[in-house]
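so the lab meeting is tmrw and i was supposed to have these ready like two days ago... anyway. pasting both below. for each one the top line is the aa sequence and the line under it is the structure tokens. i havent really looked at them closely yet so no promises
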Amino acid sequence: MGKVILEVDNLKTKYITRFGEDIYAVDGISLKLEEGKSLGIAGESGCGKSTLALSLMGYYFAPLHYQSGTINIEGKNISSMKPDDVRRKILGNEIAYIPQAAMNALNPTQKIIRFIEDVIRAHDPKAKKSDIYDLARKRFEILGLPESVLQKHAVELSGGMKQRTVIAISTILSPKVLIADEPSSALDVTSQKMVIKMLKDLMNKGFIKSMIFITHELPLLYNVTDDIMVMYAGQSVEFGRAKEMVFDPLHPYSKGLMGSIIVPEEGTKNNKLIAIPGTPPNLKNPPIGCRFAERCKYSRPECMIHSISENKMKNGRMYRCYMNESELREVYSNE
């Protein structure tokens, strides 16, 4: 096992509505991310992926609230830090976040270099303009972005160029962990390829040490990440190597999720697409038993009434199901 950069243990966060209701969006998530590795997080909309991304940064603001658990970046527990300390010492330096629709977050009235100045001066108020420009110019050049972009406004850039520029700005301080939330969504295939190449370059050139990649495009995860974690209703239901998660999923939800998409690989031509019936449970009052039970065609009465713990396998794989591996493979083979 390599050096662990990010370690999360039993993290629980919730939203509190204006009516005082609790929504348990992240419920008991644990994970380890090694240096030089990338983790993909998959799941349908509303399963808690983006909330987990926000929670991992240790920076909480209403309506999102921290409940319990720990977040360690190279042994530093950021979950117990004050929000101001997290903002000044952690965000950007230790962990960086690229949110969904990030390319629409750029102020159209400011030049790109001004955004970079703001990021760097938030951590070093005495930084000189000339030094900041030199750093930005060199970084953009290494990442394949022309120096001229620094003097442009966001409205002068294409969608793909804006997204790549946002990524460059977000990682200008060389964070240990980069969280990319749907970084290639709403882009054409060519722009997607360039964004993915840029993210890989950031790791290969040592500007980031590890990455968490969130997307609905599961075949993309297979080609980009080392491991995949599938989330459902705020919980991790399966974790494993990317190849086995796509071609040999164990959890019924993972299997349904993988069966509902087309994987452009040899041997999948005749596979039929299967939709998962129903909708995720209401997280204001989550089920006692398996959260997927009401939608699972393999569910048993005991799935509804017993809490489901994680089943950990020798190879590091994990799945959360009442059935053991042999039972799951048997029901799958009988289909």
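ok protien two:
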Amino acid sequence: MKDADQAAGPAGRPRRADARRNEEALLEAAAAVFVESGVEAPVRDIAARAGVGTATIYRHFPTRADLIIAVYRHQVEACAQAGPDLLATGPTPYAALGKWISLFVDFLVTKHGLAAVLRSDDAGFDALHAYFLDRLVPVCTHLLDAAAGSGEIRSDLQAYELMRGVGNLCIGAENDSRYDARRLVEVLVAGLRRPD
């Protein structure tokens, strides 16, 4: 079985390492621009952030939907991989959980607008949502279990509930400058702590 880094290119050949790095840089740049300006941001802004021409982006991602879906999948994977890393390096499981939730909020911000882009393809949207849940609920579960096991947080919350609550706090934040979803998410995560 091929490693994810050895994903086959168009002719079935493994892609070169520099091609994989270039695509990674494009996805990182697109995610950053989407956080700042939404998924309808001009492609030239993404190209400028990545230090490439717009033709390079279109060569990798022929349509905006292709780019948005690739960013979505890339960020799901980054979020999934971050959980164990944060748990291994964080000072406490609760601190790791808090940092992971912050990354999750970043992901949710870039996700806004995805439904509109995929509106004509409900099956595609459903598949992406299932992928999101399959990859991230177990990671959040592991972080919650570790923090509960260390006695830092209450143990009666399920990962899906927490993720859904965070998601609900993020809805509409991009349209209201008076609303700080991150602050409310911090309050939610603080509320997980066990009373002294």
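from a quick look at the 2nd one: The radius of gyration is 18 Å. Residues 1-7 have pLDDT under 50 and may be disordered. will dig more after coffe
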